[in-house]
C-alpha cells in the first residue's frame, strides 16, 4: 500500500494521528506526517480509516502493484 499526504491541503486537524497513531504523527508545524519506516502503512488496518477521518481529504491510500 502507498500513503500520500498532500501537505498543501492538510490543515493539521490530527485525526489521522488519533486514528492510526502507529503510522501517522504530526510534524513540528502540526501537519500530518508518516512515522519513519511506515511509508507503506506498516500493515495497520487503521490506515484507510485514518484517511477517511481526514476532514479535508489530504490523505490518499492506494494499493501498490508488485
TrEMBL record:
Coiled coil location: none
Domain 4Fe-4S ferredoxin-type: 1-29
Cofactor or coenzyme needed: [3Fe-4S] cluster
GO molecular function terms noted in the UniProt entry: 3 iron, 4 sulfur cluster binding; electron transfer activity; iron ion binding
Keywords: 3Fe-4S, Electron transport, Iron, Iron-sulfur, Metal-binding, Transport
Superkingdom to which the source organism belongs: Bacteria
Annotated function: Ferredoxins are iron-sulfur proteins that transfer electrons in a wide variety of metabolic reactions.
PANTHER family: FERREDOXIN (PTHR36923:SF3)
UniProt name for this protein: Ferredoxin
Organism per entry: Streptomyces afghaniensis 772
Amino acid at each position: 500500500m502507498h500513503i500520500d499526504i498532500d501537505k498543501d491541503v492538510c490543515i493539521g486537524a490530527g485525526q489521522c494521528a488519533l486514528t492510526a497513531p502507529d503510522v501517522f504523527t504530526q510534524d513540528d508545524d502540526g501537519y500530518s506526517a508518516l512515522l519513519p519506516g511506515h511509508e507503506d502503512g506498516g500493515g495497520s488496518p487503521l490506515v484507510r480509516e485514518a484517511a477517511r477521518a481526514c476532514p479535508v481529504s489530504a490523505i490518499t491510500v492506494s494499493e501498490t502493484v508488485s
